[in-house]
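Chapter summary example.
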Amino acid sequence: MTRSATTAVLVLLVAGLIGVDPGQAGPAPWKPARSITIIVPWAAGGSTDMTARIMASQMEKPLGQKIVIINSPGAGGAIGMKEVWDRPRDGYTWTANSSTAAISYAVLGQLDLTHRDWLYFYSLYAPNVIAVRADSPIKDVKGLVDAMKARPGAVTVSSAGAGSSGHLAAETFRLAAGTTYRHIAYAGGAPAVVAAVAGEVEVVMQLSMEAAEMLRAKRLRALAVMSSTPLELDGYGIIPAITAFIPTFPETGSYFGVMVPKDLPAAVVAAVDEAFLYAADTFTLRSFAKHMGTAHASLSGKRASDVTEAKARRVAWTLFDAGLAKRSPADLGIPKP
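The structure predicted for these 337 residues follows.
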């Protein structure tokens, strides 16, 4: 027997002992050789930015490399998302965003990409909270509805921009309450909240983690959480559920986490997922979730894709019903909820 034949036999014998077909071996594990960049397509201090930073701090250990956060706001996050999409598929550039924004871009005509072009690693779910400045004459949801009806199209509501979680919340409120308002867009969730504190706008409907510190500081007053369940925020108290005022109001909030293009090499995706699962289970991330009035999540792979797909039905069709869509959800293969 020749040396090459002997080697082949030994390989087959070893493969048989360990139950592995050498022709079907998986990809070699991926370990980053340099730092990774997460491009956050929103301003610093918002929900996406905070989530990206807390996740990066916990994912660095299993990856063995630093993760650098770069804020690249503009066009409701579309600019930063496109920047990530155009980078080489080498695993060294990720993005972070909300499920709502990722769904909105195609519907609003901002990107040709759809939510199905990304893989999601969600660590938090944040509900939207309706809040006003602490000295506002608007005391509850009924008072807000009355104000909007008394001054049609004049009550100002800030958001992080078209298609953002806060904008979708305001549109959901408008459709459910039969009111109108004046939308004031900012570069991110944090600036939108600060605008309400400063009195530049009358109402903000951003996410719980963006409003949390201003609520605790008594600079804002919460009217309701856009959920069927009241929200207990540490250091503030109980925020009533909006369904106590509008019983049919749908659950309104977003999942947050990091995202990568769906066509990354399998070995890279496996490494990101392993680091994500480690980070999502840390005490640091769980404590952050509770402190910021969010629900802890650990969703990746098919589970994350499934919740995004389910959310797309309401997000896309709400934008369409509000007259904001540039493309019909039906044309994107998104069925009605």
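To summarize the output: The mean pLDDT is 92.
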